[in-house]
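Workshop exercise sheet. Pairs work together: one partner reads the sequence aloud, the other fills in the structure field after running the prediction. Swap roles for the next sheet.
Pair: D.N. / O.F.
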Amino acid sequence: MMANRSPSYGSAIINPQYCVPYSVDLIITKDRTFGGHHFTVTDVNEDVVFTVKGPLVSILTPHAHRFLRDANGTTILHLRQSLLLQSGWKAYRGESGEQRDLIFTWKPPQLFQRGTKMKVFLANNTTQVCDFKLVKASFFGRSWIVTIAESDTVVAQIKHKVGSIVSREKFMITVSPNIDYAFIVALTVILEDYLSPRQ
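Structure field:
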């Protein structure tokens, strides 16, 4: 019988400093620039918490890349997608792309489950049971939740606000206490990439 080896509620994924004993509200604002899509992550006081920068596609490798940086500009996460197989995203510590620095793998929905469930596997997961899951919470795909494995335990909520001529596209996220909010930001940035071609 396969054991469910999902992380304990409240365990750090990227860094313990991003796990706090209260809920965290963050706003991810999307900026379109010459080099691709960049993001600024702010808290309720409008202080910058993270930035996410490209390039989205490297001219040297067949991958899409994004880098999550803290408020001081230090790269804490390298997000990389294979453009050849469309097999999802992998997240590495710092600017690394080495297997030893892998933190998690994000897998898109199966063909007949398009847009409903996206699974996340931590690097040390050797089972077929995912550690986290992104689930569409509204019919039009403007609201999503993050749950632990196959359970109904919600650890984050994501709301998508479409941009217009006078406003930029945003994602409003609420992260439960003791959940790594840098990890949730990374999942939201990957989700944005998944949603973009479908809007």
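Discussion prompt: The mean pLDDT is 82. What would you look at next?
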